[in-house]
Amino acid sequence: MHRRLASRALLLLACCLGVHSFLASLAGCAGSSVQPGPLTESPLALRRVVLYRNGVGYFERHGKVSGDTLRLKVRKDQINDLLKSLAVVDRSDGKVLGVSIPLDPRALHELAMETLTPGQGKLAELLDRLRGTRISVETQWRSASGRIVMVERVLPSKPEPEPEREPEHEHDHGAAFEDYRLSLLDGEQLSVVLLSEIITLTVEDGDVVMQLDRRLDASAGEGMFQQVDLTLRLSGADEHDLALSYVAPAPLWKPTYRIVLDDKKPGQALLQAWAVVDNTSGETWRDVQLSLTSGAPIAFQYDLHTPRNVQRPDLSHSGADKQATVALGERTYDEAQDAPPPATAMPEAAPAPMEPEAQKGYAESDDMDREEGAALGAQKKDSAASRRGGKPGRGGAGPDAPAPAAPPPPPAVSIEALQASAAAQARAQRVAGLTRFDLTDRVTLPDGSSTMVAIINQLVKGEQVFLYRPGGSGQGYEQNPYRVVRFRNDTEFVLEPGPISIYSSGSFVGEGLSEAISSRDTATIPFAVEPTIMVRASYEAPSEQIKTVKLVRGVLEVEAYERATTVWSASGPKQAAAYRVLIRHPRRGGNYQLVEPPPNVEELPDAYFVPLLVAAGAKEGSVKVTEQTPRRTSISIWDGAAEQLLDTLLAAKDLDAALRARLQPIVDKRREMGRIDTEIDGLQTQQSELNERVNETRESLRAIQRDPRAGALRSKLGERLDAFLRDADAAGRKIVELQSKRLELKIELEDLLQQDLGTGK
Length: 761
Hints:
By secondary structure, the protein is of the alpha+beta class. The chain has four domains: 1-25 and 39-46 and 60-155 and 179-249, no CATH class; 251-299 and 412-529, no CATH class; 534-636, no CATH class; 657-760. The strands form five sheets. Strands 14, 15, 20, 21, 22, 23, 24, 27, 29 and 30 form a ten-stranded mixed beta sheet that branches. Strand 17 and strand 18 form a beta hairpin. Residues 1-37, 167-175 and 328-399 have low confidence and may be disordered.
């Protein structure tokens, strides 16, 4: 019972102190009465806004003021960004002496309220930071009041076994219980209370209560909209012509694109782009010069308004603790010192090189849909003419034939109409590696609203083709390619990532998304799946080919290539015109490179675009992609394995004829030396066996030398010994002859090896 009441008291207290998290969640919902004030209240008019894609914006104000001060009001949640970036220029004769911001007198108390940050802190931590604050608490058994001395964690004792019972709360499933001891000092009386026993806690310091309310309001979204006074002190003339600029948080601008394929001029497309701009600054932008910057500038938050104390060492006794030591005098040599080198001006930085133009080259436009429609229309026309008795393929008909139907009206959404309806007025320039769109017309945008600004309306090179990625176009389309639009960004702008709508033949046909596209780069945007075309891949077994041979001073260096070949094939219905499928062939790992690549192959960071052409009237086409990686081998010509390697070289079909002619004598002599070595090894083995038999026969003769009855045996053993000796002598003479011949071959081979033999193919 007591524990249940204590838990309920802690829960209620935590809810009271944690109301900020609840209010913070309501701040983003409809129904919140908190309305943000303007970002900056100033007599200076807003003249320029530059928006970025990193959550900040650059704001510039111009105007004339009288007197020696300029007072601004800045929202508290914007003050730190303004202090980081504030720049004031007095275009009259005066100067800006300084900028002053009043310090929040209760800023130091905020340190005690940090525990109220959503998701952080505990009741014990809050009370411990409020040491010295007078509070009163009530438990079920007693009351206590006084100033907070400390909050100590109670070490848990070994719990006694309790009988099994149902948990009272959903969170009470074996969770470890943590308690704290609160010490209060009231005069000379020190009271100690466990936090788990507290039912009610009252803070008697009104200033602390106000800080609690203020902190909770800030967490709920009210405090961040409070304004801070900022004063600029000016000198000089009575009237000042000021330009003030700063950076403040702002929503990123969002791009959206449209590509319209030109059916009349294949290879040409219309590229249109808009920027969606949001104004959440709290004030209306009236006739401002708007710029949009693409790229990835770095921006961060940094608190410059809140005071921070730094712990320093106490050096009060440093003077008394000092003691001088005796030092032995030194003499210096009277020599002229080298004068320091004169200061030189830093060289001017060279301008950054412009980005190179992407490789050009566009294949013919894909007319599959148009040709299919034309063929079908001609077939229906011939069929209708035959039923009326007319001749197929002609426009004329008999007298009873009905009047021909009127041609359909031209589509309202055409490339000419869209190009004429959009008026994009923007200039592009490079600023510190970023691309900035400067709109030529001024923009008016009310607070709390969004607008679409046209920034690109230009004809570019473009076409429609097919693209196959390994894995297909999704579930159920594992072997089907995408329909893609390929266009080159012929503008001066960097196209930021955004949705791209594709139009063709007067209507919408799909949409895609792309990463950032630099100026003069080519983009490939999938927008639909083509189910009538099937793409397959077959793989040939890896093979090894020798391409380079070098023989340098008896060391044979061979460079072999391991090849891997993939054959891509595409099949579909016969078409009157040829069509092209781009195969996104992934690169193999290691040092693999393309061998005799097909025409118009494009390199990607991790793959290749390999064009596969299906000829007109054909159902299928294929392309072979071969990759190879080198493997080097070095071996001495005298090594036993060199003979086999040389034989492999001569057997290679693609070996150069001149190299074969120069290599053949070396191979022949090395092969002959190998044969001699083999024969010598056999003769030496035979000679060793004969010598062993000679020794055995001699031992047998010694054993029967004095036996008068072994005369016949001695005669037989003597004849056998003579035969063994003759054979051993013959083997020895043969070995000497072969060694002499081998030496001659070695000398001849060394003469051939005096000149380095090297060639590569």
